[in-house]
Amino acid sequence: MLQSYISEIGRSAKSYCEHTARTQPTLSDIVVTLVEMGFNVDTLPAYAKRSQRMVITAPPVTNQPVTPKALTAGQNRPHPPHIPSHFPEFPDPHTYIKTPTYREPVSDYQVLREKAASQRRDVERALTRFMAKTGETQSLFKDDVSTFPLIAARPFTIPYLTALLPSELEMQQMEETDSSEQDEQTDTENLALHISMEDSGAEKENTSVLQQNPSLSGSRNGEENIIDNPYLRPVKKPKIRRKNRHGILLCCPGWS
Amino acid sequence: MPLTGVEPARMNRKKGDKGFESPRPYKLTHQVVCINNINFQRKSVVGFVELTIFPTVANLNRIKLNSKQCRIYRVRINDLEAAFIYNDPTLEVCHSESKQRNLNYFSNAYAAAVSAVDPDAGNGELCIKVPSELWKHVDELKVLKIHINFSLDQPKGGLHFVVPSVEGSMAERGAHVFSCGYQNSTRFWFPCVDSYSELCTWKLEFTVDAAMVAVSNGDLVETVYTHDMRKKTFHYMLTIPTAASNISLAIGPFEILVDPYMHEVTHFCLPQLLPLLKHTTSYLHEVFEFYEEILTCRYPYSCFKTVFIDEAYVEVAAYASMSIFSTNLLHSAMIIDETPLTRRCLAQSLAQQFFGCFISRMSWSDEWVLKGISGYIYGLWMKKTFGVNEYRHWIKEELDKIVAYELKTGGVLLHPIFGGGKEKDNPASHLHFSIKHPHTLSWEYYSMFQCKAHLVMRLIENRISMEFMLQVFNKLLSLASTASSQKFQSHMWSQMLVSTSGFLKSISNVSGKDIQPLIKQWVDQSGVVKFYGSFAFNRKRNVLELEIKQDYTSPGTQKYVGPLKVTVQELDGSFNHTLQIEENSLKHDIPCHSKSRRNKKKKIPLMNGEEVDMDLSAMDADSPLLWIRIDPDMSVLRKVEFEQADFMWQYQLRYERDVVAQQESILALEKFPTPASRLALTDILEQEQCFYRVRMSACFCLAKIANSMVSTWTGPPAMKSLFTRMFCCKSCPNIVKTNNFMSFQSYFLQKTMPVAMALLRDVHNLCPKEVLTFILDLIKYNDNRKNKFSDNYYRAEMIDALANSVTPAVSVNNEVRTLDNLNPDVRLILEEITRFLNMEKLLPSYRHTITVRLECSGAILAHHNLHLLGSSDSPASAS
Bias regions of kind Polar residues — which residues (chain A) (predicted)? Predict the structure, then answer.
């Protein structure tokens, strides 16, 4: 009852105030409302001044417990635009940001080259010394064996293989560079030392000769695409009639 | 004695033979060579040959054939046993009873021995008696078939066996055998008529291990297994008439590569080298195209084979339809220096296929025509491939070579004519050997002979134009190819032989010009021309007084009479004058075109039409002459010593565009160590457009000049700042850039400069410390990781530089150098060398360049009485 009464007062007071184009109800709005609802306004001061009025004291104001902020380091990151704002905030930066620490890199070219050179030299020296220590050696001076140790020379059984074939290291390099067609192009151009061969001209000649060539290979072959080379043909089986075992006579009959 | 058999042959000469007289009383038409057993272990060969001959005289009773070191078991003629005598006089040249022991006696005896078996005179080591049963048959001039069984044991020449001593079967070991030899030496491995003028068709059969391949001349008809399937027989047919001397053989476990551009070309190499073979031969088709185009003639044989073998005596040997190369010519794409050399070898062998193999010679005195033509067309190929500069440089190099040889040893005679056979008529009496036979020549003489032959061909070209020259070649080739397709009975085969007179005749037919004086001068006579030139400028008459003297009395020289071109560069331009060199006139007056005028600033026109600004302050105020050149086109085989002022040489170096002129002036400037010469050389070094070889020789000249000027030299050592600018890092000038050899010109310069710098000496005749440190730094900072090419040749040059930097120590009292009294610089150098040597053992470089170079620049070690043990046995037989 009381509640609806009070809310009715509030509602009509708001209506009155809005009626007069205001947003905040004034005292007069409430008075009019009370009058309208049949309440005798004049009795109000007397009621307020009654002797045995109960006074409700205001609740004691307690200090809100402050949460400790000791661990915040730096500013929390705001949400990036793709995360809706209702999502929880990022944790403190220290929980996820990493800061690598390093020394100032050596970028001086001279030092780098120096280092590379001496490193390689050291490796080489260590290796050759090791080889010299473990294997046979020869020396430059008759009396001193240790100062300039030379790995003993051993003749190769098939000398041309080691001499001609590129080492594995070089092979690797070659594969790396060969993969780029461009390089290959300049390579062949350069090989003519300093005259640039006219590529287009050379190609033209190429094709013309290729067209001529089948006259030779084609006459045996008929088809251009299949390489007909006598060395690629299968070896024939001997004819059975050549059974007599005289080496000389074996070949003769065919030819005389 | 041997002449008796020849005379009737000459009488009975066939009309179809057109001038060619066979020295033999019979004609060879066909020969079968069958080798049915090859033993690598014992290095022996067993086989037989069968020659089909037609007697040309009725009373033929003896047949002489060539054969050396073969053991002949049995000879049958038309299936009848025939008696034979085998005698090789060259085995014992001076009989043991001889008392004379001098070179002259030996030389004469050897020449006599060689001519006693000379096939070109119808002689031979093997004399076969025709059985009496066949005499009637012979009188009817009917065909004879001579069947000879022979074997060959441990041949000393002709066939070379390579048998590496490793485990495994012969094929796994890479054992191979190939024919080799100088000139006509096929008789070393089978009996034949070993003459370039006796052509016949061939059937060749070789039975080899199933894992091996036999490569020989002509078309491979078929390959058949023997009945036990462990061997196969290769059957070759050569239908183009070919001389026995052009027959060859290579047997081994070869890898086979069919040329991707021309399928009738097949390449062979030893196992594992296939990738190198692919790269090396990838260029061959362009050479083919070039020759076929200029000769307007197809390659005469139906196929072509290249074989790369180990232990070759010569790098290139050309035979009918196949060429045998040294395996050392193979290279990968990473190798720069070897590439042009290998390509030259390929081109050379191919040129010889046309002239030398297909077209053969009538006699030894016609050899120069073949060598000349093949050398000449090879030169044309060089001009097209490597450019005019390289070509001219090569011509100049060859010219210098022949001039130096002839002046030192005596004349080289291209076309010797032997009349009467008397000693006094001997055209080569100044030589210690007879030039009557190819086999009595010295090796060096023969290479000079080849060199002169192609230079003379070039002179002929100068005279009749290249177009006519090529027409002549084409004529020779087309005649020969018509003849080659004919049957023997048509007697056309002799048209495949070239003779001097035939060649000259077709030149005069084609060009209509008379080149007889030229031929007389250079072909029929030996010797070169030696000019001395000097000049004076006559201001009053405005005339250049040129004096040209000749030295024709010293050995190896001859007198020149005829036109001589002189080019004079004046202020107003370049003018050619043709002087007539006559008996007694030494002085020649050449009118000058320009008045001396120094103040008018104007560009100076050069020979090639270019106009350049020159700083004329150096020149003589009175004379308008900038420089003078005698015989600029090298149209005489000559040596010119010309005197002109140093500034003229400098102008010539800076502004003459001909590489030969530049090189001549570099040579001359060595005698003028002045700051102006230094500047001119430095400018050339820096000039990128300049030919790289000129820049390279400028390096060495600069080093010499710097040494002569050592007391007045200012600034850093010669070339150091230049090298720093060109090849070192900008930020740290003492460190060389990481290697990048993409530009070959600068690569060659980078290689050469340190070598030249190391020749610098200070006042104490020692290499300046600064230079040595510089070179050691170059070695230290050498970084090839990013480079597409191998740096082995570069490193080898660095070793040369190190060697150059050492001044030979004056050995005091023959003291033995020990470690303790070693100069610290030498110690550093030795350390580098040890490192290089050791690294090479672990990571061998291409062809062991580094070890080999160390060996060559053994100077260092020799100077310091050091001995490098063992380095002599490793340096790779492959080098």
Answer: 207-220
